[in-house]
Amino acid sequence: MKxxxxxxxxxxxxxxxxxxxxxxxxxxxxxxDLVEKAGPAVxxxxxxxxxxxxxxxxxxxxxxxxxxxxxxxxxLFEFFRRFFxxxxxxxxxxxxxxxxxxxxxxxGQEVPRGVGSGFVISQDGYILTNHHVVDxxxxxxxxxxxxxxxxxxxxxxxxxxxxxxxxxxxxxLPVLKIGDSTKLRVGEWVIAIGSPFGLDNTVTAGIVSAKxxxxxxxxxxxxTDVAVNPGxxxxxxxxxxxxxxxxxxxxxxxxxxxMGISFAIPIDEAMRVADQLRESGRVIRGRIGVxxxxxxxxxxxxxxxxxxxxxxxxxVERGGPAEKAGVExxxxxxxxxxxxxxxxxxxxxxxxxxxPGTSVTIQVWRRGQQRDLSIxxxxxxxxxxxxxxxxxxxxxxxxxxxxxxxxGLAVVDVPADRLAQLRIxxxxxxxxxxxxxxxxxxxxxxxxxxxxxTEVTGASQFNELVKGLxxxxxxxxxxxxxxxxxxxxxxxx
Length: 493
Description:
It is a single chain. By secondary structure, this protein is of the alpha+beta class. The protein has 4 domains: 36-168, Trypsin-like serine proteases (Thrombin, subunit H, Beta Barrel), CATH 2.40.10; 177-280, Trypsin-like serine proteases (Thrombin, subunit H), CATH 2.40.10; 286-379, Pdz3 Domain, CATH 2.30.42.10; 409-490, Pdz3 Domain (Roll), CATH 2.30.42.10. Helix content is 20%, strand content 32%. The strands form 5 sheets. It has a 6-stranded antiparallel β-barrel. It has a 6-stranded antiparallel barrel with strand order 8-9-10-13-12-11. The radius of gyration is 30 Å and the shape is elongated. 36% of the residues are buried.
């Protein structure tokens, strides 16, 4: 009887579990149809460089000569062999074993430079890929799934977004449908197609791990756990409808290989760049001439901000759009053209996407109040190297060390020549640091410009402000160091 009851129980359990297992099996994605349809529009991109005199004489398969004194018996030779493996003869741009120089590299000869991926976005041969795939290449070869290899021409390339547009002479090419990356959901299935390690049309799958990862000024990356390796760069990230939602671009790795985290450029951002590259060969971006930093919770609360949001202005370019608009160091930009700044990285993207010459309104938080300023966006120019010279240089030293206050700071008035040089109205020049201020990272030469929402006009006024502080609460100092300013939270002792 016991055996009968046990058998019936097991049968009942199987009866209940079987539908659940079947339902789970039905929910598992099948990528076969998707890959079959999208695969033909994904291409392999091979780049080469032409040898100059410095690279002549390299061993076969190596794009450069080995370091002086190194041969195949050197332990480092294995490193070069692994990362720059000798290529098979007979391929375009590869050494010919029957050549008079026995495969040695000669000036003007093509050598392999790298392998990447791309995908066709128009039937007449426009291809999207990464900037770093084609950057520095002398020649580009695009291999289609039908084994045709065509020369590619770079129409335009943008380093800031890592997007490049390549053109091949072909017609009636299969194309990928462009999707909407803003509709992606965390946990959604996605796939990547590319050429990892040169293995054409390799398919890997995973899910969207996160959205809007800030790893650059102009890109809120899509994070996935899709396996991406060297050679996948420039290939498409596809949703389950077969639409491109991103361009596989980066991985997080401590080894150089895939470790479970990869990043893709949102296709919306990439297409905006591609459209400009197609029209003019370059990308035009706006600028307002400020250096910014994140607003932390420790800073937001003492300043009276309802939440930690916005972009802290650390520096203002002299004569730039922000200075002309009245933006000051220590301002927190809350809105740009009506759009909210949640994180500091939001501002460069919004400004960069604004046409130069456009007049917009920015909302700033200054000494406990919101202010609206009108600013005219300028065109982004090449980055300017910061001037040499550290904080505290150029000012006369006082004859005696001033007394320390409750924050652990000994301060004096800022010399007049320093005020004129830095274009500031006042402040307190730090001469000595100890205790809480030292632990917070302040140092001699820093200039204190503000305490919470109060402007510092001089050393004595600053010390009086410190005396009146509630020692049970954190205070934030607006500190100028060199050309930049930063809010520094400190608890009085």
